[in-house]
Amino acid sequence: NPPPSLPAQVSKSVSTPIAPSPVPTPGLAKRMKKSKQPLQVTKDLGRWKPADDLLLINAVLQTNDLTSVHLGVKFSCRFNLREIQERWYALLYDPIISKLACQAMRQLHPEAIAAIQSKVLFSKAEEQLLNKVGS
What we know:
Layout: H1 2-15, H2 26-45, H3 50-63, H4 66-72, H5 81-93, H6 95-106, H7 110-118, H8 124-132
């Protein structure tokens, strides 16, 4: 009698979470986090300036290390490592943020771009070469 036992198992699994619990279910927590995420991203849009985005992109391309970028790059605001990681991933994977950031960076003055590029960290290979040079 496999068919009758199957509905009994389903009804047992459905009836167990009926008891009220003060802790939200994992699915609900995930949904709550997802719904808050776009709000967080839009909140940070004002903090991240086009110059910061360009500096972030150039620094990551140079070092391949977000932690080094966090420790070594001076942005217009003080961003923690998580904010830098979130912005990097947003620039890579969020088409709306990426498009807006690219449009804003294209409007930067060439002198501003040159100044930003001069602030980029050295790569590990460049640091090793500099360490070999005597002072």
